[in-house]
Design brief:
Radius of gyration: 20 Å
Distance between the termini: 61 Å
Number of strands: 11
Largest sheet: 8 strands, mixed
Strand content: 15-25%
Structural class: alpha+beta
Strand order of the largest sheet: 2-3-4-1-5-8-7-6
Mean pLDDT: 84
Order of helices and strands: HHHHEHEHEEHEHEEEHHHEHHEEH
Low-confidence stretches: 1-7
Number of helices: 14
């Protein structure tokens, strides 16, 4: 392989992000990762959760000039990458986030063993001068696909459903998409914490989400509120603002949408409980996978339907 091609494959920034992920994998175990991600869990709860899952890997999305050159450069960096396979879930998330600019660009996955775990590297090829350079810059800044992953060791449906309920009720973890990857025969379920940290549950085989009965009933009872809130989110184009610049706070969003800050703050909190947004400890907001279809720039945007289904509504008063 041509050395100059290999050297240009990854930026030093992406190589450093991979090294950082490898250091995390090397220095952490299941209990420590749970404590960092979910500080509201007690030591007893962490011990109980640890009986059913194990820290599996840390993931990072990088942007090589080409997928073919990636394994060689990783080996040059002292790593031993496994085979490169296609991504299904992450590519789908990127396509929803960026729409037509992603075109037919593939996304690959390669696992690098570190200690008893791995670093999972997602790779979107970005040739020099490509429009995807803007995507790479946005993703590096936001870290949408960076996460820590746990493999669920208990088979069946009951334990995974119980874990999701515990994580939501005790740790404030909001579902953030997922899906089935037939190339790995694994179902991944993403979550975001109240501190805007992402993690993944990995279940072998194909699994459908198991709804929590109490939350499902509450959803039915408050359905009209949710519909109006989603319509208001669409009217104010909150998804567009957060897609253009993730991590805006309520005051900035109020200024950009011409809304009353207090009323908008209440709306944003409710949208977060619906799983369309997440709020960081610093009070900034980010779109989740559930909220991304309200972005007007995506190919299959649901923005028009949100306006249609919501009907007339009262939005936060405009300045």
């Amino acid at each position: 392989m041509n050395l100059s091609v290999v050297q240009a494959c990854l930026t030093e920034t992406d190589l450093e992000r991979i090294r950082h992920a490898a250091g995390h994998v090397r220095d952490h175990d299941t209990d420590r990762v749970l404590a960092d991600l979910l500080p509201d869990l007690t030591a007893e709860e962490r011990a109980d959760v640890s009986r059913h899952l194990v820290y599996d890997h840390t993931a990072v999305l990088v942007f090589p000039a080409s997928l073919d050159a990636l394994p060689g450069e990783l080996r040059r960096a002292g790593l031993e990458p496994g085979p490169l396979t296609p991504s299904v879930v992450v590519r789908g998330r990127l396509a929803r986030r960026y729409g037509a600019v992603l075109a037919e660009s593939p996304v690959g996955i390669v696992h690098v063993p570190v200690a008893e775990r791995t670093v999972e590297i997602f790779a979107l090829p970005v040739p020099p001068g490509s429009p995807l350079e803007a995507v790479a810059a946005d993703e590096r800044a936001a870290g949408h696909e960076s996460h820590h992953a746990f493999a669920v060791t208990a088979p069946g449906r009951v334990i995974p459903a119980g874990l999701r309920t515990l994580l939501a009720e005790r740790a404030g973890a909001v579902p953030d998409g997922g899906g089935y990857n037939e190339h790995e025969n694994v179902t991944v379920l993403y979550f975001r914490t109240a501190h805007h940290r992402r993690f993944e549950l990995r279940l072998p085989g194909r699994h459908e989400p198991v709804p929590d009965p109490t939350r499902s009933l509450l959803g039915v009872m408050t359905g009209a509120w949710a519909t109006q809130a989603v319509r208001t989110m669409a009217e104010l184009r909150i998804a567009d603002h957060l897609a253009a610049r993730p991590g805006l706070d309520a005051d900035t969003l109020a200024d950009r949408t011409g809304s009353d800050p207090d009323a908008l703050r209440r709306l944003l909190r409710y949208l977060a409980t619906l799983g369309l947004l997440t709020a960081s400890a610093g009070g900034t907001y980010h779109l989740t996978a559930l909220g991304e279809p309200l972005h007007t720039g995506t190919e299959f945007s649901l923005h028009p339907l949100a306006l249609l289904y919501g009907g007339p509504s009262t939005t936060p008063s405009r300045a």
